Amino acid sequence: MLANNINRSQRQEHILIVDDVATNIQILTILLTENGYKVSSAPDGYTALKMVESKQPDLILLDTMMPALDGYEVCRRIKASAHSRDIPVIFVSAVNEPKHKLKAFDVGGIDYITLPIQLDEFLARVKTQLAANTKQKMTQMLAQLNTKVVELIRARHEVPNETIALRPLIPRYAYP
């Protein structure tokens, strides 16, 4: 079973579930925690936005239809923030209409899963998006590291040049 194939590095990844239906949150929470994921939940869009800023989840599972602030607007706001724009959002909804799926992708969602879920498929999609996000983060970190290495190499080459330029001054400051 796929659930047994999730490696340890992925087991501590944090998933935020956003849904106004408590039963949906409970079922997804049980499923994900039994498969080693850390899970938080929010019952509405406003709470979700606050949690995204404070907890920085690795993945968000987001319902489309919620009161006050629907999932599409929540996703728009997440993607508009520099702090959270790289967090992948998977929409999870009972609505199985193409226009809703297209809207989810238009606002920045990376996948759309309809309820009821198929266990292995659901876990595979979660695992795939978390792995892709990890690879993206690693690529960004490697690029930053590469920039630092280039800066250090340049600085190292500048030091000998400065030493050569200062060498004629040594006799002035040296004791006889």
What does this structure look like?
The chain has 176 residues and is α/β, with parallel strands linked by helices. It has two domains: 2-133, Rossmann fold (3-Layer(aba) Sandwich), CATH 3.40.50.2300; 137-173. Helices cover 56% and strands 13% of the residues. The chain is built from seven helices and five strands, in the order H-E-H-E-H-E-H-E-H-E-H-H. Strand 1 (14-18), helix 2 (22-34) and strand 2 (38-42) form a beta-alpha-beta unit. Helix 3 runs parallel beside helix 4 (71-80). The protein starts with 7 loop residues before the first helix and ends with a helix. Residues 1-11 have low confidence and may be disordered.
Looking at this protein, list some descriptive labels:
176 residues, elongated, alpha/beta, 5 strands, 56% helix, Rossmann fold, disordered N terminus, 5-stranded parallel beta sheet
Brief characterization of the structure:
With 176 residues, the protein is of the alpha/beta class.
The average pLDDT value, as a whole number, equals 88
Helix content, binned percent: 55-70%
Let me know the number of strands. 5
Computed Rg: 24 Å
Instruction: Name the CATH class of the largest domain.
Output: Alpha Beta
What's the SSE pattern? HEHEHEHEHEHH
